[in-house]
Queue: 3 jobs
Job 1
Amino acid sequence: MRSLRYYEEKGLLNPIRLQNGYREYDGTDIERVRIIQLYFSLGLHTKEIIDFFQCAFSEEIKYQCLPNAIEAGETKLDEIRKQIETLRKAESHLNGCISSWREMLRKGASGNNDK
């Protein structure tokens, strides 16, 4: 709940307010929260997410926000690609280690080197 209030406070989410003051969320709000959480998990800051939303969820195309959104998106994509490459290297290294360890264990068990 606190996250939803924070998103609303920052202008990322605009739920309908009922007469009793409760917030009413619809399907688009739910999808928007998923996108917000994804962007936060990617390391984007609130301002960057707002810039993306102004371009992505606006009724009219706001050409002035497109250059910043494109630049931020490309920067984040570069970071993600570098992270993917690092993870692939780590995966390959770990696969090699595990294979090597299994082979050592197999040889040790078959040779019964217990003393």
Job 2
Amino acid sequence: MTTASATASLARRASPAELGAGALAAAAELGLYVHFPFCSVHCPYCDFAVDARAEIPHDRYADAVVAELAARAPWFHAGPSAPRLVSIYFGGGTPGLWRPDALARVIEAGRQAFAAAGTSLEITVEANPGEVDDARARAWRAVGVNRLSLGVQALDDRLLAALGRNHGGAAGAAAVRAARAAGFDNLSVDLMFALPGQSLDDWRRAIDGVLALEPEHVSAYALTIERGTPFGARARKGELVVPDDEAAATMQELVRDTLAAAGFTQYEVSSYARPGRRAVHNSLYWSGAPYLGVGASAASFRPLADGTAWRFSNPRATDTYLKAAAAGNPPAAHTERRQAADLENEAVWLALRTADGLDRARHVQRFGAGAEVGREAELANCAARGWLVVTPEAIRPTPAGLLFADELAARLWR
């Protein structure tokens, strides 16, 4: 989750004992991320850790995740006060494919590990529209899932085919109907823009179509061509043509303005919510809160009371992860020891991707100095460009600033 450098990161792999040592920084809230790598198909644009196979090892994978959770959860209790678990997020891959009873085991293990109780715990499952039916939606609700994130991506059959998706445009509405019938009152819909062959009119129809589904939350993000994907290979050969940066910016402005008129608030670069429906889990990432990631390729962030932090992630290959998890407390595949200066840069970058921006008093409390120190000239420059509003209380991006979030990060990294 860094944009500039990995200075002060460890070149060697840290042991589980090192990763679990030291008191956790004071934090009120904690998130649990569970990665489920299995998919029906591997979309040609996707660079996530996914595993498309005919037979999913439901129970073996649940065993591994529960064992890892038991081993690593105590690391996030180390300190004067344990943070409160506020979210469990099942991402992937397609966690909607996980057999509901296996998924329920992981939810219960998470609750037990962090003494979570009550209905305030946000539990999200990502699902593909073509793989949601009435029975599965009811089963999710029965085991405590209270939020669905539906990977609709597009409503046009032509564009879905171009993306390599395994569902048609009508599947989005069918999934929403099944979820509502099962009692879900918190639905998020993913949409992608700047797709191959997508016009502005195509995008306008997609936005209108999603609004007709009446979700509580929308994530709208531009297609990114990742080098190691089939789309990346096609792009290098000149076989994949997508809208240019100017067209993509126009698409982003269109979704922002259209959703705002419909009662949604843009609270992060790609995230829009109705009142009270911001994603609890993703908001933890942007605020620098601790999170534990379990499962293949899952990443964790463990801030320490001494001002440093560990960031570490699991093996990416599913079978490698399963073998490691069977050992009880597997070593992380990648580790970084982040110093206070690294964390301060990240805090500025992440805060300025959100509409709330950076709380200046909280930043001083956390890092001992104001965010403006060493950034005075660039802050003034960005404000003059209309990208930032600087007040005694906060530094906030303007709507234009959210369009240039990556450039803001590059300019303000010190």
Job 3
Amino acid sequence: MARAVLPLLGLLFLFAPSAAAADERGVVLPESGIRYPDGFDINTVGVIRGKASDVAIPEKGPVRFRVASGRETYTVLASPPWYWNDLNGNGVDGTTVQVRGSKTLGKDGNLYVIAQEVVILGSNRVLVFRGEDGSPSWRVSGLNGERKGGFGSPMRGEGAGRGMGTGGRGRR
């Protein structure tokens, strides 16, 4: 029995680093110096509104896009690519959005928002990336279906309860 279990444990340890990498715990983004996804600070949460553009879906690191909001342009850090795809976030580019998240200034001098929630205005479609406490939704396991009512944000409204998108697989 023990001989059968040992190879299985070995395989488990082989795949453990890739699970941690997929979760992207504590990665410091080189260009901005922002710790992601753990750099979210509930004390700096604010809301921006503007036109989304330049969606980038990298192999590693968070999906990001720009939002031109008045005189400022922010880079929005959303989620790992697989979670972005689960939420079907591809409809953001070229739309007017409202983003709630943790605002910060990168070491590169650019403004960033670590997204908690993105509302695609006009459609009232909501992409939820983080819970009320700022913890990443993709780290939550066992969630199935929709999360109701957003998280008390002023962006809540008709159609705003779609938090986990199409099933929210949680950690892979």
